[in-house]
Amino acid sequence: MTDPSLAARITRCPRIYHRERADDAAALVPDLAPELRDLVSAAASTAPYLMALLEKEADWLAEAVANPEAALRANCEAAATCAPEALAKGLRQGKRRMALMTALADLGGAWTLEEVTGALTDYADAACGAALRAGLAAQIKRGKLPGMSMDDLADCAGMVVFAMGKMGARELNYSSDIDLICLFDETRFAPDDFHAARSAFIKATRAMSGTLSDITADGYVFRTDLRLRPDPAVTPVCIAMEAAERYYESLGRTWERAAYIKARPAVGDTAAGEAFLQTMRPFVWRRHLDFAAIQDAHDMRLAIREHKGLGGPITLPGHDMKLGRGGIREIEFFTQTRQLIAGGRDPDLRSRGTLSGLEVLAAKNWISPEAAETLGDHYRAHRTVEHRLQMVQDAQTHALPRSETDFERLACMMDMDTQALKDDLHRRLQAVHDLIESFFAASREEPQSASTDHAFDTSVLDRWPSYPALRSERGADIFGRLKPLLLDRLAQSAKPDEGLLAFDGFLAGLPAGVQFFSLLRANPQLGDLLVDIVATSPALAVHLSQNSGVFDAVIGGDFFSDWPGQDRLTEMLHAHLAQEADYELRLDGTRRWAREWHFRIGVHLLRGLIDAATASVQYAELARAVLQALWPVVVDQFASRHGPPPGRGAVILGMGSLGAGRLTPTSDLDMLVIYDADGVESSEGRKPLATRSYYARLTQAMITAMTAPMSQGKLYDIDMRLRPSGNQGPVATSLASFESYQKEQAWVWEHLALTRAQVIVGPAELSRDVEAVRQDVLGQAAPRAKVLGEVARMRERIAAARSPAGPLDAKTGAGRLQDIELFAQAGALIGGTGAREIDAGLAAARAEGIIDPSEEATLSATYTSAFTLICAARLLTAKKLDAETMGQAGAQFLCRVMGCEDLARLESQLQSAYEAAATIITKALPVLPAKDAE
Q: Which residue intervals of 832-902 are DSSP H helices?
């Protein structure tokens, strides 16, 4: 077993600075082991404060060194059991003991920095708890806290003390103030009792602060600072959580956001405190990458320097190790700023500690491992020096000595040569300053742009200041610095004036600019992508202007990595939704998450990283992942009121392109909901429903979850017209009814649609049963003449309803996408294969002798071309594709995707392909009598 004693863990020892004091100290602890006595005497020789502690606590120390951790745990426990009349004296004694043991473990190298600051923080928590409960007990005894008894002291009657700053992060320094915010849960009290409760909590808070910070003959416990609370000039020392939340929502500033990174419910009703921090999460951790925080942090750095007079070069005498150049605060600012930028998207970055924050930032590739290691090493060294400066007189100082004598004292505490210490300090301070300054300077560099002779239309440029994104002074200032870069990118495009008009449309639709412009300024490479998007794809540009936060994903680390696949996407969305407890926040979160992945697929297709076929599969996998993750959320929410799904549950059956696993950028989702009551007549819940009504309303809840226009928009449009009996039938169908309808009543076109159906989500056993019904219906070869005749009639009706607008209109018309899909589905139905893929249906038609192999190849190639064109066209615009208005960039994109040199040749090739495919299908189908064709 490892020896827990302090003596067994000593790795260093200060040099003696004051011989007489060292001898006096050694005489106070004659029974200690020699190595411990040497440590104690040397420590006391360097610091009068430590000598004073030793004079009062030598007897306690003699026993405590056998197991310092156990001794300090007992010291914290003693704070909680002090009688009210002895509390002030007892807490001060406990502080002396903690300060003495912590100093010796630190100076002797027995504890790490984290262990030192953790011990300091543990006692601060214990002292605050004891002092607050004493203050509350006095109010309860006097009947000033309505409805509360002494039993409620366990959670401080709904009051919570948030440890802020270093105490919140468990990083207290040796002679630190403690920054506290005191709130109470107003929901614990009736409205009529609110003011009485608030008054009692205010008095208890003042009593706590006085107990801790008043200087008596025994000293003080902790200097207490309550000024970090909302608007401290006008608010009392303890306020209601609701009032604090309103303040931060409306008036909270960036420094307050940074402060809450370290906030920790330390004392009192910690459950209510954690709940409050959850409500604060949107304020502290912005959903989008917050590069505007860089400028805010830089402004704060400069303000501190100016206020404290800490500018100028680094000189050691009197240099402030906390606030000065290269100091502790620089490292904390660097860490917190990076956390604020990305912590809203990645909860792992929300670490309270500086060192742990640096580690996770490096692990998530927001800073280099080398930067994290370097700053971590300097942070530890800086904090070590800071502690020694404060041990001398228990002074809240961070300033290096001004005299050589005092520098010699510090060198003795560090067991270093004085000049070596000075050299090391200067090297570390300069290294931190250079690294941190390079980070903030890089964020302020003006984007480099090449000079261009292109003259843009000034009437377009002149109207930009009137746009919403540029109306704020800060937004206009940041954009003014970006403007040369963006115009340079536009000037380099094939059609600069077309690009300018496209960018003008994007800018006009951008509702706010500070965050987005800050993102572009911090990541100039995104300017190329932005210009590429707005010049090529009006649809994607509109989407981007309305949802500029999706650009966050581009620099999120894996935007250009391999596609994760449907299963991994579902896992990721499940994990994302697990972070939210509120139903509407989950729906909004799903929209935000899906929108980023949807944007990624579009950018990859636009940039030629994937082809249209791959994009269509990815769009489908994304939609399926959304359904698979969201369906259980909707079911659970619905079940909370009406009970769990009765019977065997329900499945979502994907139809059309969703079932076939190929979607375009703008596809809606065709689906059915099929349930099996399994003989159960109603649900069992607070508000039970008959089974049929239960599943009908559950289906409607799912439709609403997908289509409702929330703050993050909608997910997908849902089309359920392919359900039995179409719009006249119920929105949810029982398995028995589905099977009966498909086998006895369904039209040929409904069986054609069934060839592409696939269960997307639902109980595994029920999913297998639904697929078995599909296979049973489709597994028997359908009458050839009947199927082909019905397809011929459908084809004629479609032709009568709509004519294609030209070769670029590839969906509806003879020989085009829909025509080939119907024909392939007919082949699958006649062949009894149940195949979902178009090529498999064409192969079945060939196997049945309906077409020959060359005709099969022609139809397959034409279908591929038509689908590719539609997928690319939907990325460019949600409207009909028009060769005259799409612009040169759009035309080039279309030609590249289609593998053709120019648009005229593409249209010619498409027209020839349509005509060849139409001829094949027409030949294979029967000629209808005139009355059937009408």
A: 838-847, 853-876, 887-898
